[in-house]
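Just scan my protein:

. . .
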Amino acid sequence: MNKKAYGLIHHPWLKHDQRLNDVSATIMRKLTEMNRQMYTLADCYFDSESKIRTKDDIDKFVSAELPDPCTDLRLFQIVTKCMHKCINSPFMRDGQCCKSFAKQFKDDAEENVNGYPIYRRRATEPVQVGKYSIDNRWVVPYNPWLLKKFNAHINVEVCASVKSVKYLYKYVYKGHDVASVKIQKEGALDHDEILSFVEGRYVSARDAMWHLNEFNLSHKSHTVVRLAVHLQQQQPIVYEDGQEAQAIERAALRKTTLTSWFELNKNDPSAHNISYSDIPQYYVFDKSTINWKKRQRGGQNVIERLPVVSILDTERYYLRMLLLRKSGAISFEDILTVNGLRCITFQQACQGYRLLRGDQQWHDTLNEAAQFQSPRQLRMLFAIICGFGEVEDVPDLWVQHQVSLCEDFVHRYSEQTGPHYALADIEELLTSYNLSLQKLQLPTVDLPASVLERANFDVVEEQAKANSYTMQLNSEQRNVVEILLSAVYNNAADTPKCYILDGP
């Protein structure tokens, strides 16, 4: 599956309608979350064939025009009732609409303007709606099928850029509406964040109704199974300070999903033809017995995930590559064995299986990372691959993945200049590996230093802000800050540098 695309549709009852697939596309995984305003947010991960890519796709799913009353009178009535802005709208401020209506007429849709398209709004004769006259400039984008089904205001937007992730999860996880008022003496400070959150929570009538009727607040169509990838006797261990020895003893006896897979292959011949990455579709990992058990149902609703491994962690990186392809392994030694010969490293085993011919593994790495990492993270990965990987054709690697590596700069600037900024950023990252664009035979760029330099800041001003914020902390918060600052400024080897802050 290529990079994810997202579909957002707000309606309380939409999640109960299976025909959502007909409206949006083929959905790889859907997460529906009921937020506190009692809207349903359908978070849909579409497959690569169903993503909205072209102007025709935009026009197919989203309309921002008044329909023809002669051909579809019902849709025309709904749009003129529910899907337009007018001069007396609550969004009007001093004669100006804060939602930027009226829009400009547009004969054709435009793709990706700051992450969003500009929809087609052809110039037509205005129609009379009540005492106001409106045309296509005042129409809120909508999907005709959804509008006719629910006869309600349903705004549908195409958002297929890196901004969509922030937009999605801002709605899903923003929490309850809160109204909190506190009166205190001047200069006094006694702030309890937890108590303020509990007492300030506002439950609306719709929220209360939803809870009283015991309606589901969330729904997941698929189960995501995370599979461990670790070297022999190097699985992660969680322990409390001073109990390291006991934790190591427990970990030595406790199996992981990977070591349990080895045991499964020893005892169950039917699992020999199933790779590690596909095993959750046919078996369930029982955490109580720490064993894989044959799945009775639901295998088609499982998504397996192997954690991303950096190329800097060389052996784990190549072990992961083997686990994606090799089936029936009964031990780490078995994975290292190729055609009866035992390899010393997993990298050698990959070479024995001819998985490292050419630069295919680097293309696969960047393609996989492009599904969930930002362009900046991809450029860092590109620099790491160039610095530590044995890449035969770096220019081809750049050309093949230029779109995903430059996506943020293209959105910010243009398709012509975006790659120049991306190359300049990569040039800066390559200095850590004593490399340059010229050494790698990549196109060189000549951008002013002011474009790439870090923003300066006033140290005195920032210190004054820090002191002001510190005065607003309660005693427990101040204690946490002092501990963390002490760890930052104390260079002693025995000073802890890793802390976890657990709070509401």
Q: What stands out?
A: The chain has three domains: 29-173, 224-353, 359-451. Residues 421 and 451 are 9 Å apart (CA to CA). The longest helix spans residues 475-489.
